[in-house]
Amino acid sequence: MRIVILHNRVSADAAPDEMDVLVQVEAVGEALISLGHAVEPWGCDLDLESLAFSLSGASPDLVFNLVEGLEGHGRLIHLAPGVLEALRVPLAGCPAEAIFLTSHKVLAKGLLRQAGLPTPDWLADGLADAAADAGGGACGRWIVKSVWEDASLGMDDGAVVDGGAAAARVELARRQGRAGSPWFAEAFVEGREFNLGLLDGPDGPTVLPAAEITFEGYPEGKPRIVGYAAKWHEDSFEYRHTVRRFDLPSQDEALAAEMTRLALACWRLFRLRGWARVDFRVDADGHPFILEVNANPCLSPDAGYAAALERAGIPFADAVGRIVAAAHR
Length: 329
Prior knowledge:
The chain has helices at residues 16-34, 48-58, 79-86, 96-103, 105-114, 164-175, 228-232, 237-241, 253-270, 304-312, 316-327; strands at residues 2-8, 38-44, 62-65, 91-92, 122-123, 142-146, 160-161, 183-187, 192-199, 206-207, 211-215, 242-245, 275-282, 288-294. By secondary structure, it is of the alpha+beta class. It has three domains: 2-92, Response regulator (Rossmann fold, 3-Layer(aba) Sandwich); 122-187; 189-210 and 246-314 and 322-327, D-amino Acid Aminotransferase, Chain A, domain 1 (2-Layer Sandwich). The strands form three sheets. Strands 9, 10, 11, 12, 13 and 14 form a six-stranded antiparallel sheet that branches. Strands 2-1-3-4 form a four-stranded parallel sheet, with helices on both faces. 43% of the residues are buried.
């Protein structure tokens, strides 16, 4: 097949999280070539009319969607796949609707709550019904997050706020207008952090091994979060001391089974396709809470999804082949 790998165009001086899409393009392209496909990487921007014109003229057999936003705005992530669907171009990856619903974190949390799936309480002034407990997480602790942006943009130690809902609202007001706006606050779950990848297949999705993110050597009082530095600043304490591991103790079997059940429920709820990831926090009593459903998690070779594939014994090229096959079902 002739496959276009569509990605957001990035500038030479873009931030590390934006530049990473080019690493993904290279990895996916090599996998597709190894499977016998002809590959064309295309960068896109806000000129969606030109994208539609180019697609109409080129008539690729398939577009592999790696777009993570447009012009640095994550809230526009669903526009490019929406154009593809309007033109009836086969799309590898999640549908535009699923990408929109999961990328708006407050909307996603509301849908999770309506479906009876556990997600922490939240505050979101002017965006949606907060459905929040005034007490917040343990000791009234909250964490402030961007509603739309991924890659942990804006998440640092200062994003974790003590003092209950009032203090969280003060921090929300302080951040409005900054990069990453709008913001919301989520009740902070003190405990462990996990993520589970999902991969499409002819008989439904495969749930990849659960990965725990451990915070090694964190000093007392330092928030245990996977913030921006932990993901992108290789010389930071957070990057060096935030460790992924798959070797869960035997007493975690029931927890892993419950997170698997919840991940599959998210797949069905949002009608995901291709590949996805669900992030969890687990409280001191062993109860998992869904933090986020990522409809297009990073496919870089050094990222968590590739590590989970390796742990499951699934070659990266085989996973890419399954994503392509899902687009035609």
